[in-house]
Amino acid sequence: MTQVFKFGGASVRDAEAIRHLGHLLARFPERPLVVVVSAMGKTTNALEALLAAARSNAPADYRDRLEALRRDHLATVEALFGERAEPVARRVEALINELDRRHRAHAERERPFHYDQTVCFGELLSTTIVAAWLEDTGLASEWCDARELIVTDGDHQAASVDWAATAERVRSLDLADGRLRVTQGFIGATPEGNSTTLGREGSDYSAAILAHCLGAEAVTIWKDVPGLFNADPRRVDNAVQLETISYHEAIALAWHGATVIHPKTLAPLQQRAIPLTVRSFQDLEAPGSTIGEDARHDGEVPALMLCEEQTLLEIRPRDFAFMDEACQHDILGRLVAAGLHAGLIDAGATRLSLCLDSHPARLEPLVASLADDYAVTRRDGLTLVNVRHGDDALLRALGEGRDCLAERRNTDTAQRLFPASQCPATWHLPD
């Protein structure tokens, strides 16, 4: 059965990383295999800066950035292929020139449309180089354009998948010839052929879309970490790896701030009971972590998720009326319109408390809007501590010496909001 592998930007950031990717894939001769690849390193950031230069009418800055993009990718081609570089370099040059033409063609279009016609070139460039390198090293490969496979609506920067049309196109792929397929993450296209992007964690989502439509046996996401942990190892000194968790548990962890797989990636896999494994591309002997149907090990160890740079809003009706369903509907509707997520929501008789990311461009207009109609109290500089499967002793230890500003708890999750100044740089989960 088909396997789907996904590689992020770190695994193709330069020539050395692409060579390592080739060695890794050579260890997996089973076919069919579909490989989904992100843009190289920080290319997406570079393309966003290029877009800003194009739209701000800064031609010199635009040209400098375009040439830097060309130079960086051609340098990778030269480092990989040496004297055999010319055919691949021509393909890279053609893509850069097409990017330049599209900027001129779409300079007056709305930004989300222009964004998608620009940023897609990061994945097109990386996969062109990767597919050529794999073929050059003897791994029979075929480059596939994800824009011809994943059909979406025209909601640019957050496109929704047309599942019926996508399934028809993906299933038309002939994977029986033993060739490895290399395609792009993060991008699709409208039926008219306009490029679109799939939003947050779009490359992982691309792998899940293809796996769902192909009825794949499994998906593997290759990262620079050995798997999923019960806490961020950079912030918790005794974080432990989770070998297996269920789809439900992974979604709950993601909702509460864990940097695990995004729920939109898991949904199409859960529908087909396709397991997803996170593995290290740096250490192939590491066992990895698997998300699937098996829930037997959920909750064996507590999980700690830290959401930093948080703002607490306490919202009250000005006439001291109840915070009833109509008020909550109005407030939460404004939250949705602002594009903000509330990590903690707590309602009382006359107030609604919201803990939000301190995202100035989105938060400030929301606060101003609410202040027109409600009494709003605000506190910034907070850390939201989310604990899954923690007992009373653990919660007491994590809260010791800290002022709890808001709290919620149910049977499996506790949330507490503390001043960031009272939170350590490194946390420890008591035994």
Automatic annotation (TrEMBL):
Keyword Cell membrane present in the record's keywords: the answer is no
Keywords, ordered alphabetically? Amino-acid biosynthesis, ATP-binding, Kinase, Nucleotide-binding, Transferase
List the InterPro entries hit by this protein, alphabetically: AceGlu_kinase-like_sf, Asp/Glu/Uridylate_kinase, Asp_kinase, AsparK_Bifunc_asparK/hSer_DH
Question: Which first-to-last residue range defines the signal peptide?
Answer: none
Flavoprotein in keyword set? no
Catalytic activity annotation: L-aspartate + ATP = 4-phospho-L-aspartate + ADP
The domain of life is: Bacteria
Question: What sections of the protein cross the membrane?
Answer: none
Q: Where is the Aspartate/glutamate/uridylate kinase domain?
A: 1-279
One Gene Ontology molecular-function label: aspartate kinase activity
The pathway noted for it is: Amino-acid biosynthesis; L-lysine biosynthesis via DAP pathway; (S)-tetrahydrodipicolinate from L-aspartate: step 1/4; Amino-acid biosynthesis; L-methionine biosynthesis via de novo pathway; L-homoserine from L-aspartate: step 1/3; Amino-acid biosynthesis; L-threonine biosynthesis; L-threonine from L-aspartate: step 1/5
Q: Which EC numbers characterise this protein's activity in its record?
A: 2.7.2.4
Q: Which family does it belong to?
A: Belongs to the aspartokinase family.
Annotated protein name in UniProt:
Aspartokinase
